[in-house]
Amino acid sequence: MEILIDNQNNLIKLDEKFEEQIQNAIKTSLEHLGYGLNYEISISIVNEEEIRKLNKEYRNNDSVTDVLSFPLFEREDIPEEGMLGDIVICVERVKEQAKDFNHSEERELIYLTVHSLLHLLGYDHIEEDDKLEMRTKEKEIMKKLGIFKNEKL
């Protein structure tokens, strides 16, 4: 498993422990969902300006969002190894949402990582049934990680 983390901001410092938490979240997610660990994933931590630009360019949506996922495969076509895709997380949204939900920035970043990885694996939350399935998987993975809502890491 190779996780490439590109921290393009100075609002959240990603030390070795924090990067290990991100890697553990991805490893736990892949294992929980029955995938192997022979994958590569790119994670970029960006500011509002950058995520807005990407959101407009790739989704035709001129707004800031908390996270964007760029999967390389449809759910039924995911290979047993190789690059799965890119995750882009907005640092200001991490900070805002952590405050809004009364938990740590670390917890929010881990949650968004899990959420985005599910998107890379073909999960979505457009239809209500799909949303329920995705939220259930998120909760199962966060529970396995021992990270709960309103928790300060």
TrEMBL record:
GO cellular component: cytoplasm
SUPFAM superfamilies with a match to the protein in the record: Metalloproteases ('zincins'), catalytic domain
Entry keyword Magnesium: no
InterPro entries according to UniProt: MetalPrtase_cat_dom_sf_prd (IPR023091), YbeY (IPR002036), YbeY_CS (IPR020549)
Cofactor dependency: Zn(2+)
EC numbers on record: 3.1.-.-
This protein's name: Endoribonuclease YbeY
